[in-house]
Amino acid sequence: MSRLVVVSNRLADPRKPAAGGLAVALGDALARTGGLWFGSSGATAADLAPGEGRLRTRQAGKVLLASVDLCAEDHAAYYQGYANSVLWPVFHYRLDLAQFDPAYLVGYRRVNQMFARKLLPLLRESDLIWVHDYHLIPLAAELRALGCRQRIGFFLHIPVPPPLVMAALPQHEWLMRSFFAYDLVGLQSEADVDHFTRSMVTEAGAQELGAQRLHAYGATVRVAAFPIGIDVEEFQALAAAPDAVHTFEALRAEYSRRQLLLGIDRLDYSKGIPQRVRAFRQLLERYPENRNSATLVMIASPSRDDVHAYADLRQELEGLCGAINGDYGTLDWMPLRYIHRTVARRRVPGLCRAARVGLVTPLRDGMNLVAKEYVVAQDEADPGVLVLSRFAGAAEQLEEALLVNPYDTQGMAGAIQAALHMPLAERQWRHQRLLERIRRHDVHWWRQGFLQALEESSSASAA
Ligand code: GDG
Question: What is the pLDDT of residue 70?
Fold first, then answer.
């Protein structure tokens, strides 16, 4: 069995429960093969120059954690800059928010080159390397340039935009070429595979070889959808633990005569949070029976505060939330509880279970794990209803959710109204089907599917 090497922007200690399902699932696989997890530490060091990094290693059980400190300038250009002010907005179709500063790209390449230099000496010949996400797209090309011949797979957690949106990215040819240094590229959905393939064919002149293979720049890469799942058992265990149960009971008692709706996201413009608040406002306006009754708890955990677009979003949201409470609130009822803080992970299942309606309404999302967590947390005998944006990757799998267009405020308000008043039998059959699919396609299924495909792929770039 090959040793697994996981590379991601940030490391998580897989033994800590707060790390979440993905870290635990990757940690399991790493522990099985006695693996290596490599990534940035998130810390910046004043004594480092651009392009320099300080590697630290530490053993966590059977897993070697290797993390790299960067200098502040590199962190700003690579992480805040190219990754989160260029790739994130463009891949979420938000060209209006992208900041195409050439210095960001320079920093992004410099850091990827440095990661390749630091990682190479840690590698063994038979390693299987799995690179994660948009921060690290050129990493395989940098490793190959240093002579790395091992199989390298890449998984993109965010969506792929259509070809003409991708083409707006200056140097998109360079970025596309970078993908051909991988043996396998995994994407979240079939829509992403379609966009990716069309971009490669029209912009990079790639040939489709069949069996999900694309050929360009003298290399062949396999591209396929591997929709990510959650660790259902871990989340159910979390739901049964005292913190989640207390959270659930406290909310149920407080809202015994009212209906609770829940939104829980990172505060990110891709998540459609203002659109959700507008739809909720429309619900109160058009269906007045919900006044003094429906309450939306909206947890928007702080994220990327140092990127401009996020500060603007925060301000917009504060205005919208304040207005709704000012206009509709009464002495004993506030329609909206907006919480701009992170809630402890162990309480999340309890929150989900207490909510009659789960609102997951991104404008665009690679997958969206909250949609899956909400379903898993429900009481099978009296389940809540998931209202899900058709633009979340999860919508390809979760078709029994109430699918909505988050840009259509009235349509979304109508769907929320239907969810709030859905008969028990319909809630149960929808929930049963959703749960069955989420169970079958959990995080372990995702990881095994990807790693098996990577094992089977021939080292295209080394050929
Ligand atoms: C990227 C892609 C893709 C949220 N708020 C709190 C909290 N959370 C947890 C949720 C969930 C996770 O964070 C968020 O996962 P998502 O999938 O919704 O979103 P991204 O962070 O944008 O992740 C996404 C994912 O990668 C995996 O491939 O699905 O499309 O964008 O687990 O529960 N957890 C705690 N407190 C909070 O306030 N503890």
Answer: 96
Q: Which amino acid appears at position 362 of this protein? A: P
| Residue 358 counted as domain residue | yes
Which of 26, 130, 266, 342 for a ligand 1 pocket mutation test, highest count of atoms within 8 Å of Cβ? Answer: 266
Pocket flag, ligand 1, residue 351 (CB < 6 Å): no
Is 462 among the domain residues?
no
Domain identity same for 90 and 213: yes
Helices (H), 304-386: 308-328, 348-354, 369-377
Average pLDDT of the segment spanning 252-271: 95
pTM > 0.90: yes or no: yes
At 19 the pLDDT is 56
Helices 369-377 and 424-440, interaxial angle, to 10°? 120
How far away, in angstroms, is 373 Cα from ligand 1 center? Answer: 10
Closest CA to 384 of 357, 366, 362, 404: 357
The ligand 1 atom nearest the CA atom of 341: 38
Q: Tokens for 253?
A: 């008692």
Indicate whether 28 pLDDT > 90: no
For 407-448, the DSSP string reads: T-HHHHHHHHHHHHT--HHHHHHHHHHHHHHHHHT-HHHHHH
Instruction: Write out the two tokens for 422.
Output: 């859905």
Are 205 and 308 in the same domain? no
Query: Which residue, 438, 270, 445, 414, is CA-closest to 352?
Result: 438
pLDDT of 367 above 80:
yes
- Of 365, 431, 441, 442, which one is the catalytic site residue? 365
Residues 162 and 264 in one domain: no
Asked about 215 being catalytic, the answer comes back as: no
Asked whether the beta carbons of 77 and 109 are under 8 A apart, the reply is no
Please check the confidence at residue 463 and state whether its pLDDT lies above 70.
Answer: no
**pLDDT tens column, 380-408:** 999 999 999 999 999 999 999 999 999 99
CATH code, domain carrying 277:
3.40.50.2000
Q: Which residue has the tokens 């210095």?
A: 103
- What's the CA angle centered on 418, arms 414 and 423, to 5 degrees? 175
Is the CB–ligand 1 distance for residue 373 below 6 Å? yes
Inter-residue contact 456 to 224 (CB < 8 Å): no
Domain, as residue range, for 237: 232-439
